[in-house]
Amino acid sequence: MPINLNITVGTIFLLLGVSCQGAAALMPSLSEPCMVTDFPALCRGTINGQTNVNAATDVAIRELMKRTRHARDIAKKELKVLDGGVATCLSNFNSAFDNLDKALKNVKENDGFSLNINLSAALTDYDTCSEAMKGSKEINVVYKSAGVLYKMADNCLALSTLVKL
């Protein structure tokens, strides 16, 4: 009996070792945080080579805020020309900006729960804008901006899962 017990325990340790190696292979490299995102090329262009996940998340959120500000300015100009979808987008861009501002504070305060909530809210804001613009007869720059902002927010949310809080 002791031989079988030793073989069983040895087999368990062997399987655990193989399992851990497999899990490590699936985990993103700490030097490549964008591997966890759905849009890694966009992420890499956004974080500019940052390998520290906290810094990468911070940079990604700041870039998203910058582009949201720009999209908001475009929506203000388009508001006079297009239908109510643009007004919805303008409102949602303002809301997203506020949520991203809170998310930056959450990173600094090591509040992962609130970080996830605020990034999720921003993601919803961009999605709501896109949905409002789908009814528009022509695809315009506001709709296209909302699509890119959605992808960037999705990347921020993915990066936030790596943040060491």
TrEMBL record:
| Extent of the signal sequence | 1-25
Q: Which InterPro entries match?
A: Invertase/methylesterase_inhib (IPR035513), Pectinesterase_inhib_dom (IPR006501), PME_Inhibitor (IPR051955)
Specify whether RNA-binding is a keyword of the entry: no
One GO molecular-function annotation for this sequence? enzyme inhibitor activity
Q: Gene3D superfamilies attached here?
A: Invertase/pectin methylesterase inhibitor family protein (1.20.140.40)
Domain Pectinesterase inhibitor, by residue range, is 25-159
Q: Which UniProt keywords apply?
A: Signal
Question: Family assignment?
Answer: Belongs to the PMEI family.
Q: What is this protein called?
A: Pectinesterase inhibitor domain-containing protein
